[in-house]
Amino acid sequence: MMKWKTTSKDINFDLGPDRYVWGVPHPDIIALSERTTIRGTWLNLAAGDGRYNDLLLDRCESVVAFDMDEKSLQRLIERVQPPNRSKIQPQVGDITAPLPFESNRFDGCLCTGVLHLLEATTVRQVFAEVFRVLRPESCMIMDFAVDIQRELPDGSMYLVDGEPRYSLDDGQRLLDDVFTGVDHETRTSTVPDFPVENFDMTYVFRCNVLSLLARFGASTDEET
Hints:
Number of helices: 5
Order of helices and strands: HEHEHEEHEHEE
Structural class: alpha/beta
CATH topology: Rossmann fold
Number of domains: 1
Number of strands: 7
CATH class: Alpha Beta
Shape: globular
Helix content: 10-25%
CATH superfamily: Vaccinia Virus protein VP39
């Protein structure tokens, strides 16, 4: 497993009401969410401090926000507006372990900002669990960062120990393999330079990103 600073003590959550630790919501994820029906109960997997949480809460009856870090989930809850607070269910857990949910529980899953940190074998294990907890008529929205660079103030690159180095072709092949036989569409875009001042570090983050919408059944027909 890669070495990465993921504990609460390393994270500065005091970024203001409209900023999130893991960046701003990506337009492709928002666009893909508008191309499918979001309703019922959704799983926000690796929810972090909630940059996409309102996207689900405004349309679902309930959302399980699942993340390994309790403080991230606390920050997520603080951001939820009162009308939606009865809909949110925070749960602490590790996405690389078997998910603590019964099969066929969720109408959809959103997972962003995390899968690129895992080796391909682990990514496949995560998807196997996600597919298990999704209902036959459901959908998934996710992203996968590739070609990642973290540029330090002196111009050198910060390399995370043990992080996979996925290229665009690597990421596309992996997702095409995982979603073989599943109706899905993928968008590719570039993430603009994003200044990071967190984890006691300062660097500029940039990458390409694959954003994917998978439809598992008739209930995921595009909205008109």
